[in-house]
Amino acid sequence: MSHPPNSDRPPPNSDRDVKVVIVVLPRSSIMSLASVLDPMRAANRVAGKVLFDWKILSPDGEPVLLTCGVAIAVDGAFSARVQGDCLLIIGSFNLDRHAQKPFIASLQAGARHFSIVAGIDPDAGFWRVAGLVNGRTATAHWEELEDFALTFPDVSVKADRFVTDGKFWTSGGASPTFDMMLHLIRQRFGSSVALDVASIFVYDETHAATDAQPLVSLGRMEALDPDLARAIRLMERTLDRPLSMSALALRAGQSQRQLEMRFARALGISPGSYYLRLRLQTAQRLVSDTQLSIREVALRCGFDSLSSFSRAFKRQYRDSPMKLRQGRQ
After folding, report:
1. Are 44 and 10 in contact, with CB atoms under 8 Å apart?
2. Selection from 145, 147, 169, 174 nearest residue 158 by Cα
3. What residues contact 225, with CB distance under 8 A and at least 6 apart?
4. Looking at residue 199, what is its pLDDT?
5. For the segment 169-208, what is each residue's pLDDT rounded down to a tens digit?
6. Where are the extended beta strands (E) located within 144-277?
7. I need a surface site. Which of 28, 130, 185, 206 has the fewest CB within 10 A?
8. Ranges in the chain annotated CATH 3.40.50.880
9. What confidence tier does 245 reach under pLDDT thresholds 50, 70, 90?
């Protein structure tokens, strides 16, 4: 029998520790890994006993180099024989280049041994080769959502912070993963333990699973200057069809002069420059992390002219889109 979400009583299964297997893949984020590990460590600390017992594995048993250049030692190689309660897979950039067929086969077979299988900050390439979310509801980091939806037409893709669909859980980044781990702690050991863990990290803005992922994390700006936040959200939604500054100001419910003053005061930049930077940041990610043609990248980021896109991109990143892509291969 489950307890209400706000109940401090621990669930019936809280009398034993949770066996967790963490699979870290090449080019993972250290923040995503920390968002998995530290909530479990803190839960053990506040409980004064082992609530979570984990081990870290890699596809081949070798240390894993993260995007920040730190090598993570592991306890061994993942295989289809590994068992536990929770299987947490730390995703990575361009994972379909790193995930080999033997590992994917082991993952597909081994997933049956776990009551929870979670993809932490996964990309669409990983789920394509793993085939674990077909026909389900899932999320990914906001940078991957569009490609995720295109890759999996039979998956209900949500822009939520994290999604739980039966035993399969997905999160949309490092901070949403922290929320997801608090959800797991609350589910297994009660709300008071989850609250204690959040307090250790001075984490006082815990989010629900269904909270949307923002492209720009505005933090307290939403409350301090809602008009500025509204304008930035409009920019996010119109990257592929950018509005003129007068149209943006009108839709944001303010004059163009007011809009310019708000951006200058809060961000030290004009609204037009900020808008362009958002578009180019999206373009840089698409050039680096996808196989889309440069022309398609330009169109997705609101550039009708390939030459104007290349000039703007080079001013921002010093290299042309094609040269940047060649350097990342």
Report:
1. no
2. 145
3. 262, 266
4. 85
5. 888 878 888 989 999 998 999 888 888 888 888 776 566 6
6. 156-157, 162-165, 168-171
7. 206
8. 12-200
9. very high
d(CA 85, CA 107): 15
The class (CATH top level) of 221-328 is mainly alpha
pTM listed for this prediction: 0.65
Comma-separated ranges of CATH 1.10.10.60 domains in the chain: 221-328
Question: What percentage of the chain's residues is helix, strand, coil (to nearest 5)?
Answer: 50, 15, 40
Regarding the domain delimited by 12-200, which CATH topology (the fold level of the hierarchy) does it fall under?
A: Rossmann fold (3.40.50)
The token pair at 9 is: 């009583």
Question: What are the distances in angstroms from CA 181 to CA 24, 25, 300?
Answer: 16, 19, 34
In this prediction, residues 297-323 reach a mean pLDDT of: 90
Kind of pairing between the strands at 168-171 and 162-165: antiparallel
